[in-house]
Design a protein that fits this description.
This protein has 110 residues and is mainly α. The chain is built from 5 helices and 4 strands. It folds into 2 domains: 63 residues, no CATH class; 31 residues, no CATH class. The strands form 2 sheets. Strands 1-2 form a two-stranded antiparallel ribbon. Strands 3-4 form a two-stranded antiparallel sheet. Strand 3 and strand 4 form a beta hairpin. 5% of the residues are buried. About 5% of the residues have low confidence.
Amino acid sequence: MFLSLVRAGIAYSEYRTALDAADHPQWKARNRWGTVKSPVGDLNGICTLMRHRETKRCWAPAVLRPVVEIGDTSDLGEVAAVGQHTRAVLANDLGFSQTKIDRLYKQGIV
């Protein structure tokens, strides 16, 4: 089948799942997986967001930037805890007063 596609000048590729793509040797060879800090601990490389039903292996897209300068050791930052930035967003981005924010918390809205 592939030979027929090549002869006809039709582009093709092998079907891959997200798990297959994440497990590709080039990702590993180029060291493209990073570690992300989170409230539940470090998420190393590929873990927790997608669970493969057969292997039970977990994957999380902790992919490093595509272009990195030699010697760059910057990381991916941290995953915020639930509600970690809520007050700042309400105050700085939405312009809510501290009194209004406190009221939202007291009423259980936030």
